[in-house]
Amino acid sequence: MTDEALRDRWLDHATRTLSTSGRRAGAARTAIIEVLAREGQCLLTAQELLDRLGPRGSYSSVYRTLEELFGLGLLHRMSGRDGIARYEIADPERHHHHLIDETSGTAHPFTDDELERVIHAAAERLGVTLTGHEVVIRGRPSVQASHKRD
């Protein structure tokens, strides 16, 4: 699936979810959702989102909307080593995780069907109804990987 298709699907999903949960599509919320859809699976801080909104955004509307969208399952939230929350759109059809390069701070999204199977099997074995999960792997480039880049 292309990034554009993912963004379009997420935008439709977000609009439907907000509508069915009885939330208004005000100008500030709509602008925030459009920026998030445009950025796709790029991890953004609230400040970065506010910067992209320009005069259309305010701190209160950005923070309130991010929390609302996260609470509705429309966004993933991840904190880096700096403690700052970063957000990205949650693909309604395909779950992914992140590998964080601690040297550069870059987040590399990845999918792994076997990891998903293990997580769901563990939940079943423990008698837990899985409502969500997040896997963040942190690491530094290995010596071999560093030499391959040179």
TrEMBL record:
Fe cation binds at residues 95, 116, 133. GO terms for biological process: negative regulation of DNA-templated transcription; regulation of secondary metabolite biosynthetic process. Signal peptide: none annotated. It comes from the Bacteria. Binds 1 Mn(2+) or Fe(2+) ion per subunit. Gene3D superfamilies: 3.30.1490.190, Winged helix-like DNA-binding domain superfamily/Winged helix DNA-binding domain. Keywords: DNA-binding, Iron, Metal-binding, Repressor, Transcription, Transcription regulation, Zinc. Pfam families: FUR (PF01475). Its cofactor is Mn(2+); Fe(2+). GO terms for molecular function: DNA-binding transcription factor activity; transcription cis-regulatory region binding; zinc ion binding. Belongs to the Fur family. This is Transcriptional repressor. It comes from Solirubrobacter phytolaccae.
